[in-house]
Amino acid sequence: MKLHEHQGKELFRAAGLPVPPGEVASTPDGVAAIADRLGRVVIKAQVHIGGRGKAGGVKVAATAREARELAARILGMEIKGLVVRKVLVEPALAIATEYYAGIVNDRTSKRFVLMLSAMGGVDIEEVARSYPDAIVRVEIDPAFGLHDFEIRQAMLRAGFDQARLRALGSVIKGLYQALVRYDCLLAEVNPLVITQEGNVVVADAKVDIDDNAVFRHPELLPYRDDSFDNPMDRLASEQGLTYVHLGGDVGVIGNGAGLVMNTLDVVTANGGKPANFLDIGGGAQASVVAKAVTMVLSDPEVKGIIFNVFGGITRCDEVARGMLQAAREMNLRVPAVVRLAGTEETAGRALLNGSEFVPVASVQEAALTIQELIRKCQ
Ligand code: GDP
Ligand code: MN
Fold first, then answer.
1. Residue 242: closest CA among 173, 292, 187, 185
2. Given this model, what pLDDT does residue 326 score?
3. Which CATH class is domain 95-223?
4. Is residue 100 among the annotated active site residues?
5. What is the pLDDT of residues 15-25, one digit of tens each?
6. Catalytic residue among 5, 90, 99, 100
7. Where does 231-377 sit in CATH, by number?
């Protein structure tokens, strides 16, 4: 679950990090009112994507009037396809230095890795590409956490200002504590700023919470609503389905993530365009099948559906019954083919005979048949 900058900053503030006081607004008048109180402000678009600065989503305003004008421009603008609905307004900083500090989940070492760079402010992927040596990496042993001496060594290697090591170090330590406390997959501050007055300030916050751990943090639930960038993702989450929109016209539903991914490949290899990934998991309840079909059909681009079902502990005839019941309860507006394999597949296929679900023998056949049926419908 990605957090907006202002939400990430709330967590960091609670962990004792030096976060500027800020307020969120969704109208130019709201922004002007905040600027009236704060004076010179920075107005920052709140969208789940980096590079807002470059895209024109971060602007400094000297007066409340200017703040209103800039806010009118930023609110409603699109940054990489995401519409800006809220902005964070903070007192503007007099920036002297910009560093990068981030802790990321590294799947190769199976550890969290602290990354520091004196080349902050810029996109870190860009730094990694062009100046890989400018990033210092420290693998974190989960049993011991980050030792103070490791933080200190890393800061020195990264070339952080020696006069500010204490303040910078405590930010890094707090960043790790926040990451552990909130089960983050990523906690990043870019830029970590030293102001002209010499203060260390967390000027940006990028936080990604492990979805599987959100249940342990009821205080984060209000952020959930905000974490969906499109209505389909929200619907899937509410229904407890694992759905990924892919943009084609062949809906794909299967039981098991690997099976569904394989189906996507076979559809593509046969010239089709998958509309989505949808794993219904184990079980065969009609209600789950119906939910899955509703989900897939809520995508107006979908012109046909492939079911790929492997009967293991869940038997194919049970799945077939679930599908038939689902079809009775709802309007299946497009053709559907079903590949059933495994336990009780013959019984399952017999049940589907004569129904709106066309049984096929292989995934390959499913991919070809659905395209043919879609063509016939047009
Ligand atoms: P990002 O581009 O999405 O990563 O957004 P940032 O919050 O990192 O802002 C981009 C850049 O805005 C920063 O790197 C700063 O150089 C610049 N900036 C200028 N003035 C300010 C200020 O007062 N506060 C902050 N946070 N950034 C500022
Ligand atoms: Mn940034």
1. 292
2. 85
3. alpha beta
4. yes
5. 999 999 999 99
6. 100
7. 3.40.50.261
